[in-house]
Amino acid sequence: MTATQSPRNHRPLGSLSVSPLSLGGNVFGWTADEAASFAVLDAYVAGGGNFVDTADAYSAWVPGNKGGESETVLGNWLASRGNRSDVVIATKVGAHPDLKGLSAATIKSAVDGSLTRLRTDYIDLYYTHYDDESVEVGEFLTALDDLVRAGKVREIAASNISAKRLEESLAFSAREGLARYVALQPHYNLVSRDTYEGELADVAARHDLAAVPYFALASGFLTGKYRPGTTVDSARSGGALKYVDTDRGRRVLQALDTVATAHEAEPATIALAWLAAQPTVAAPIASARTVEQLPALLAVADLTLTEAELALLNEASA
């Protein structure tokens, strides 16, 4: 099966067809070494997944790393498995420590570095990682269009961008006949709804953009592992713990527990299913350090929440 064919539960993303769960590659070369990463990637594909998300900046925040580690691991896996055409690879430009921003020169240099590390001659989905308001939208969109015309990139997308700049970018592409954003990667989950809902989601809906939310599980909080009085050994625990003692956090966990019990499912699956049910959302992103963490994530493909369950979660997370 190629990345443009559409199995039963895959969703369209521009000319691409993606599985209902995007596997986050931020842990590759960080909390998962190459062997562990290969095992997770193998299990993800075996479970029906085809959409892997990474960035040239992953994982520059780790002492001793310089950025590009995740792409390198992923590229080695693709080369060793010989399955490049079966997997939709998304990566990002603009946040690598040595290549920050969205100038045309930065984009041109960064894409070649990503292609080298990924050991491929094309990127399926190329995101602007963070908007760079010091650069006119016309400059970076023209540079991205050049990459599409050269066959280095198939589709383009945006992450961490304001509604105003997103609208401006889409208008420029339409006016100039250039490649246009087909997807948006927002920060969005049950305990962070205002980071997407409202003006930004309205722009996505109006222009038929597919949303691919990051922090879909709120740094692990929505797995249900983090409760008052518990200790979790995770490099991301700080991000999750900030929700534990909030009223919204407690309400959301209680609602997740109720719905999870009804479905005999994990809270993580329910949290992802809620996201998948939201307007514009094509595939939430979630990462796994181990193969054992994957089944709860992949289960989102086969779980549909009732209107009453969605209403319960909506109320708890309001």
**Contiguous runs where pLDDT drops below 50 for at least 5 residues:** 1-6
Q: Rg to the nearest angstrom?
A: 19 Å
- Could you report the average pLDDT, rounded to the nearest whole number? 95
The strand line-up of the biggest sheet is 11-10-9-8-5-4-3-12
Structural class call reads alpha/beta
The major sheet is characterized as: 8 strands, parallel
Gross morphology is globular
First-to-last CA distance: 40 Å
Order of helices and strands: EEEHEHEEEHEHEHEHEHHHEHH
* Count of β-strands: 12
- Share of residues in helices: 25-40%
Q: How would you describe the overall organization of this protein?
A:
The chain has 318 residues and is an alpha/beta fold. The protein has helices spanning 34-46, 69-81, 104-118, 137-149, 163-176, 199-206, 237-244, 247-263, 267-276, 294-298, 307-317, and strands at residues 11-13, 16-18, 22-24, 51-53, 88-93, 95-96, 99-100, 123-128, 153-159, 181-185, 210-211, 285-286. An 8-stranded parallel β-sheet has the order 11-10-9-8-5-4-3-12, covered by helices on one side. Helix 3 runs parallel beside helix 4. The longest helix has 17 residues, at 247-263. It starts with 10 loop residues before the first strand and ends with a helix. Residues 1-6 have low confidence and may be disordered.
Task: Give the helices and strands, then pairings.
Layout: E1 11-13, E2 16-18, E3 22-24, H1 34-46, E4 51-53, H2 69-81, E5 88-93, E6 95-96, E7 99-100, H3 104-118, E8 123-128, H4 137-149, E9 153-159, H5 163-176, E10 181-185, H6 199-206, E11 210-211, H7 237-244, H8 247-263, H9 267-276, E12 285-286, H10 294-298, H11 307-317
Parallel strand pairs: 3-4, 3-12, 4-5, 5-8, 8-9, 9-10, 10-11
Antiparallel strand pairs: 1-2, 6-7
Helix pairs in contact: 2-3, 3-4, 5-6, 8-9, 8-11
